[in-house]
Each structure stands twice: as structure tokens, then as C-alpha cells.
Amino acid sequence: MDSRTEPAESASEAEPEPPDAAIRRASPRGALAEPHGRSADAKRHARAADAKWPAHDTAARPPLLRELLLVVGLFVVYKVGRQLATGHTGEAFGNAHRVWDLERAVHLPGEGAVQTALLHSDTLVHLANTYYATVHFPATAAFLIWLYLRRPAHYIWARRVLAVVTAAALVGHLAFPLAPPRLIGEAGLVDTGQVYGPTVYGAHPATDSMANQFAAMPSLHFGWALMVAIGLIAATRSRWRWLWLLHPLLTLLVIVGTANHYWLDAIVATALLGIALAVIHLPHRTVTTAGRAQTRVDSPVQDMPELVGAGR
Known about the structure:
The protein is mainly alpha-helical. 64% of the residues lie in helices and 0% in strands. Helix 4 runs parallel beside helix 9 (152-175) and helix 8 (136-150) packs antiparallel against helix 9 (152-175).
């Protein structure tokens, strides 16, 4: 053999071709520039999947009929339970004076400051009364329906949280009947529902067959509104999702300004919701989204199956 060719042959044997050389030669320029080898197309697909997450997540959706029966059953139990708390007029007014004195002792702002702002306009007062009477249940129902259709895993979580908070509130209504501030002369507040309308309560609490006016503590108006905001923030990724906090904020101003609740009613509702959220954990990933994430991780290999063999 010609000695002039031996060094070349020896060099070829001494320096074998790197295993990924074939992949680098076959890949388009820049396709493997990212540290984990994801191409630009793979990155775009990942971003598109993230933007849609979890819009098409239907793996955890429970049966519709069962959910309807469950939600309706919980609502009936709650309404019946609230009615059981009626008739404790003396206790309700005694507790109202205690709550009022406690708020003043801890220097909470007076509920009258919010109502004074509302009373500057008859239209504003009417809108506040309408909001109080008509938004509470429909907003919560719409929230649950949307979660059921678009975020089933979050729906189960939210339904459980609302059920726990509502059950705890029902216990509070039975154990601590409380007349709202509009009914105690010491507060000096106007019953805006009776004066300006509309109202969901009768003129005389003791004979009101439609609602229990002594179920002020805690405020489910505020507790549910806060859960709606938290649930939508958790289940969506829009940069504007934090604006949902305006719903509980507006609800707080309405329930206080119309003299239907004390500040403490909202504070207790917030504490109950916080406990429920600490016990019932938010779903981080569903079966469907987990599968989509795994697909995104494996996508570079799937995009170039012929290159896997080239590196052998």
C-alpha cells in the first residue's frame, strides 16, 4: 500500500464522525439552534397550543344530568336552610348591634360613607339595587356553565369550593342570625331597596316569606362574586383576566352601599373562601393538557424520523 495514503486512512479511523453530524448536515439552518433542539415550527405550534389551553379540554367533563341535579339539590337545601333561620328577630337585632359596635371599635370605615356616595344620584341607587337583585345568581350560574363547557377540570374544582363555602355560610346563618344595617336605627342608613327599588325583600322581615333577611353573616353575594373572579383568573390566560376582580369589588360596594351587609360580612366570607381554597386544590394539569405537553416535548423527533436513523 502506498505510504502516502496511510496517514489519511489513519486519521479517518482515529477521528470518527460525531453521531449528530448527519443530523446537523440534514437539518435546515437554525432548526436546531434552540438548546433542546426544537425547531421554529415546533415553537410556533407550542405557542399556539398554549394560547388555546385548555379550550378543548373535555376529558374530565362530568355527566350533565348528574351535575344539574347536584347543583339544583344544593340550591334547594340552601334555600330551605336559610328559611330555618327566620323567626329569631330579637337575637338577629342583638347581633346586629354587636357587629356594629365591633366595627367601630376596630375602626372600620362606616357603611354610610359608601351609601352617601350612592345617594347623590337616584339613577345610581337604582342601578345598585338592580345589581344586587339580579346579578348574584345569574353571574354565578353563567360562570359554572362556562367552566363546565370549556374548563371541566376547573368546573369540578369551582363547584366543590362553592359548595363548601355555601354550606359553611348556611351554618353561620343558623348559628348567628344577623339583621342587616338597613334595619337598625343606630346605623342611620336608608333601605335603598324599599325607597328606590327594586328590592328582593319584603317590607317587614318577620313576615317575609320570600327571603330570610336575617342571613347577613357571611355575605354570599361577596363570597360567590370573589370565587367567580378567582375561578376565571385561574382558568384563563388572557392578560386582561385580572379585570375580573372588578366584579367582587363592585359587589362589595353595592352590598354595603345598599345597607344590606356590613363590612364584616364580606370579611368573614373572604376567610371562608380562603379556607376552602386551601383545602380544595386548584387543578394544575388535566389528562388532555398533559398529553399535549408530552406531544410538544417529543415533536422534534417526530418531525425528523429519518434523522434518528442517520445518527446510528
